[in-house]
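Extended Data, panel c. Modelled sequence:
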Amino acid sequence: MKDHYDFSKMKGIKNPYIKFLKQPVTIRLDCDSVDYFKSLAEESGIPYQTLINLYLRDCAISHRKLKMQWQP
């Protein structure tokens, strides 16, 4: 191996997988929801944030919409 490498002539290449990377977001969830996913995480061995992401992705792929009615 060389003691010194010259990287000044290298051209940068954009990451082709950038669209597959995750985006960090901050959301507020109620404690019951977080506890639910944490208990699922313990059972399955999958981190709870990954489980939340998988659930939300499934909702997005299947175009699931929340059906909610406010009581008068």
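Helices lie at 31-44, 48-61. This feature is highlighted in the accompanying rendering.
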